[in-house]
Amino acid sequence: MRRRRWPVADPNTTPYVGRAMKRIEDPRLIRGEGTYTDDLRLPGMVHAAILRSPHAHARIRKIDTTAAKAIPGVVAVLTGADVNASCGLVPCAAAIPDLKAPKHTVLAGDRVYFVGHAVAVAVASDPYIARDAIEAIDVDYDPLPVVTNAEDAVKIGSPLTHPDLGSNVAYTHNVSGGGNIDEAFRKADRIVKHRLYHQRLTPMPIEPRGVVASYHTGEGTLTLWTATQIPHLIRTLLPGMIGVPENKMRIVAPEVGGGFGAKLNVYPEEALIAHLAMRLHTPVKWIESRRDNAAATIHGRDQVGEYEVAVKNDGTILGLKSKTIADLGSYLQLLTPAVPTLTGLVLTGCYTIPAVKMEIVGVYTNKMATDAYRGAGRPEATYLIERLMDVVAQELKIDRLDLRLKHFPAPGDFPFPTSCGLVYDSGNYAAALTKAKQLANWDQLLKDRAAARAAGKLSGIGVSTYVEICAMGPSKAMPAGGWEWGCVRMEISAKVTVITGVSPHGQGQETTFAQIVADRVGVPIEDVVILHGDTSVAHYGRDTYGSRGTAVGGTAIVMCIDKMIAKAKTLAAHLFETTSDHVVFENGRFTSPGVTNRVITWPELAGEFYVAKNLPPGLEPGLEASSFFEPQNFTFPFGTHICAVDLDRDTGHVKITKYVAVDDCGPQINPLIVEGQVQGGIAHSIGQVLFEQTIYNEDGQLVTGEFMDYAIPRAHDIPDYILGSTVTPSPINPLGVKGVGEAGTIGATPAIANAVMDALEPLGITHMNLPMTPEKVWQAIKTKT
Amino acid sequence: MFPAHFDYVRPATVEEAVKLLAKHGDDAKLLTGGHSLIPAMKLRLARPQVVVDIGRIANLSYIRETGGAIAIGAMTTHADIEASKTLRDKSPLLAETASHIGDAQVRNKGTIGGSLVHADPAADYPASILALDAEIDVVGPRGKRTIKAVDFFVDLLQSAVAADEIVTEIRVPATAKTVAYVKTEQKASGFALAGAAVVIGPGGVRVGITGVAATAYRAAGVEKALAGQTSLTPDLIARASAQAAAGVDALGDIHASPEFRAHLAQVNTRRAIEKALTRA
Ligand SMILES: Cc1cc2nc3c(=O)[nH]c(=O)nc-3n(C[C@H](O)[C@H](O)[C@H](O)COP(=O)(O)OP(=O)(O)OC[C@H]3O[C@@H](n4cnc5c(N)ncnc54)[C@H](O)[C@@H]3O)c2cc1C
After folding, report:
1. How far is residue A721's CA from residue A310's CA, in Å, rounded to a whole number?
2. Which of A608, A629, A650 is the C-terminal boundary of a domain?
3. Is residue B75 helix, strand or coil?
4. Tens of pLDDT along A686-729?
5. Which of A110, A314, A485, A700 is the Cys-Cys partner for A540 at CB 3.0 to 4.6 Å?
6. Do A645 and A752 belong to one domain?
């Protein structure tokens, strides 16, 4: 049994901020009382099923829908020819110069480009009949040559994913920064080279996608419920697709069961189901099956890179070159081509590396699109720099921690400009490393490893010191703006209604925001309600991704509260017959020491604001404020993860014997939620390093299309974590918070991989692709013994 | 995931069920725990016209000692087998094996009869059924017959039970205590990549292997190498276990190559023998 580490706070005591409180949203979810998209039932609602391509690349000669249409209960059977003109093109928001982009229609035109490509849709009175109907559609395919490997796809003579584009290369993106890279490599004593592969991953949220659309013909208004992280971005982008104006469109993200980036997208089905509701004059529901989720919801990673580090013999790193081929799949989803470029932003990790050069080649293959998946670009960067640090240390025979420490910027170096063009806000990297070593009992760990090795065991220790980019972000760096909006209203009953433009779906902001508000406003936390995920309630927002919720969305709310309190002080001053500057607000009480002994509390004040009979001239009734917060920079959380492993020589099985993570995400609003986020992130990394992989065979068939073949981490794969933190506030927002949604998975992947490689080091094994499955480990051991 | 249309009938007795099977022939499928059949139906890989639910027939779920054997009703769930004191005290191999199947939900619904008839090449029970030299009773239009474990698993997803027959009882020896089941899980499904079940008794050592080939099998090479040996030394065990996949056409897929499956069969056989010996 796992120890309970957190004393859970008594919800009736303040301050709330900083306390390990259980999540307000959990009881309804645990009891099965949450309303997910599939729980919605509207009068007259019909059900859609989508026929998907069994071929990775084929020309469609003919589609015959006659038999499907004849099935009793079938309402409509439609193909690309019927709907594409009314549904616009699926948007890609990434601004990459000279990007070659295929036209991405909601249903296939005359070709299919990947297994799972939507070909036709059937709508019926129940989902069983809809499923029968798509089986009855007869599609005559002419299979075409397929390319599934990005490195093959760039070779001359490769089959073309999109023959009309003339090449599989979508773009080539060069980044260089800092000093002169050629000079760095000339001055080097040694050039360390390494090749790394980030396998393709399937996000597999436990709730697949789903959409319900309802169109009010008389009003011309559309309501779309969709399992998404980004209701507001959809409201920005969908009008251009289906021709319903933004102000007649309401997007609702109900309870959303996991996203991890997979639901940070505008998908063909969102336009298609909306169109069907408009076309058929009745509400339409579509729920993705697990197989369709694996095949037609975005995948992550799938990059292969060649890296070169220019070093002096004393370990000084002079420069870093990287050449990455990124497999984009066959189409561009919302951020597909941008994700690999994010890698370029944190290539240097938490180190002073004077010169960098990166070339990224984005490549089309006959597979599902890749896009932002948990950490998006940063896990790739962290994995490569942290593996490289170990490889360099090993080649130069210097201590890997010393090598890292040598290249850390000092706490006084912040704000720290990097060669990749960012300015890290704040940090104390050595402090996190020191704390992690303490928690891991580092010296003992080294002794244990030595003893295990002496006994013939394969035992390893891995370290990763990481920095990542959160609180996305300054609008100038974000395709559709990076600000956040919020609104705080005190009702006449003195209850507080908070509306946020972020769209939490597991991050716990119904709790953390309530903690912030209850403290700042001085009301009991039960009196605070956080509303989100409905564009008719939260009029504006930029939603949830890139660990932005609390740092950007939380700040907008703090700004609202400050405005609301300022307004309240004006009225209090009026009631005290003094001026605002003589009003003191503390713990929900307004006083005016020296002027009067009277105390005004929120209920009294809220009542006055709404009955509005005694307001000073010029003061508007109502007690509500809204704000947009524009961050001036990203935030840069960091930390150190340490992992110890034992390998089973006979079976290749990797057992994690110790896992320590020290993360610095700034001040913690709720340490219990921080821990939950870190735990989940590390679990993702355990999956990525040890077993998860999306596999297409040479014909482009998806072999890992369900949970029988795609391994996700389960409870028994997770070791007992030892978690700690340091607190370095960010100067970018008044809460000082940085963000923690992706830290776990960014820091953990290299720590675990480095541990496995460390265990194999005595055998002279220096390279292994992810995932490091038992069979790969066994094969590697076998070839060396 | 929506299955194709089917009719549903729920007979009250085995005799009635046998009649229904005779009537509907290949169009009918028996349903007990549903944990193999229903997933296949949802993926539309199985499309029975008629589902004959025998899950509620009385008196087919029991574990009791009869003579020198323990008799297990075909509809006994994995959870009941795992928890059975009779099995744990007298013949613990099936209980240990059941604890490796799926998760609690699967064990609460899935039945031993369903698992055996389904004959999944990676299911857990088959290895133990073989090592225990169990007997399986079936009832059909021609009456009742008993199938020996070695004759039960015919091919991939194919058992010796005819489409019109129903498994009613499984019998295992009541005295097999020096036993063990060691399994390497397929990481995604949790089924066996290679599972080795071992029964060590006065008559010698019996080894059943699952997950490795199209059907579970008795590791004849291992059994032969250990036959007549009075002292099972680590060295002897290792040499014998190396025969665990000898002459076997091992399966290969994205989860393990044939070579790795065969290797795991050897390792798990060795480990199972060593573990069984600690329970002597
Ligand atoms: C998520 C999951 C994980 C699993 N993991 C494992 C695992 O790790 N190891 C493992 O071994 N198994 C595993 N299983 C399979 C599980 O053990 C099944 O329960 C079992 O294989 C079938 O038993 P059932 O009672 O559910 O049979 P059903 O699904 O009802 O039937 C299976 C087949 O047997 C036939 N049948 C059923 N009962 C009889 C009978 N009495 N006589 C004749 N024919 C009959 C049916 O017609 C059908 O063809 C897993 C299943 C799931 C869903």
Report:
1. 36
2. A629
3. coil
4. 999 999 999 999 999 999 999 999 999 999 999 999 999 999 99
5. A485
6. yes
Min Cα–Cα distance to chain B from A74, Å? 15
Contact B187 A127 (CB under 8 A): no
CB distance B254–A695 less than 8 Å? Answer: yes
> Hey, is A494 helix, strand or coil?
coil
Cβ separation of B267 and A651 shorter than 8 Å? yes
Residue A365: which residues within 8 A CB-CB, separation 6 or more?
A147, A148, A149, A150, A153, A161, A168, A327, A328, A329, A330
Q: Is the CB of B55 under 6 A from ligand 1?
A: no
Residue type, B42: K
DSSP code of residue A89: B
CATH of the domain at A593: 3.30.365.10
ipTM at complex level? 0.96
Distance set, CA B137 to CA A462, B142, B156, B168 (Å): 55, 13, 21, 6
Task: Retrieve residue A281's tokens.
Answer: 């004059």
Asked whether residue A549 is assigned to any structural domain, the reply reads yes
Residue-wise pLDDT for A567-598, tens only, equals 999 999 999 999 999 999 999 999 999 999 99
- State if residue B171 touches ligand 1 by the CB under 6 angstroms criterion: no
pLDDT band at A2 (very low <50, low <70, confident <90, very high): very low
How far is residue B253's CA from residue A703's CA, in Å, rounded to a whole number? 10
pLDDT of A127 > 50? The answer is: yes
Could you tell me the two tokens for A489? 């209203």
Q: What is chain A's mean pLDDT, rounded?
A: 96
CA distance linking residue A416 with residue A728, whole number of Å: 14
pTM to 2 decimal places: 0.96
Report whether B11 contacts B52 (CB < 8 A): yes
H-type helices in A713-773, by residue range?
Answer: 743-760
Give the gyration radius of chain B's Cα atoms.
19
Task: Please name each of the domains of chain B with its CATH number.
Answer: 7-53 (3.30.43.10), 58-173 (3.30.465.10), 179-278 (3.30.390.50)
- Residue A595 counted as domain residue: yes
Cα separation, A601 vs A623, in Å, equals 14
Q: Which amino acid is at A783?
A: T
- Concatenated DSSP letters of B2-62: -PPP-EEE--SSHHHHHHHHHHHGGGEEEESS-TTHHHHHHTTS---SEEEE-TT-TT---
Q: Give the residue whose CA is nearest to atom 23 of ligand 1.
A: B114
Tell me if residue B193 falls in helix, strand or coil: strand
Instruction: Kindly state if the Cβ of B167 falls inside 6 Å of ligand 1.
Output: yes
Residue ranges of E strands in B91-202: 135-140, 143-148, 153-155, 158-159, 166-173, 179-185, 192-201
* Half-sphere exposure in the Cβ direction for B254 (13 Å, CA): 21
Determine, for residues A709 and B188 on separate chains, whether the beta-carbon distance falls below 8 Å: yes
Distance from CA of A692 to the nearest CA of B (A): 9
Secondary structure (DSSP) of A562-605: HHHHHHHHHHHHHHHTS-GGG-EEETTEEEETTTEEEEEEHHHH
Count A/B contacts: CB-CB distance under 8 Å.
44
Strands (E), A234-299: 249-252, 284-287
CA B132, B137, B138, B142 torsion: positive or negative?
positive
DSSP A632-657: SS-B--EEEEEEEEEE-TTT--EEEE
* CA gap A708, A516 in Å, rounded: 43
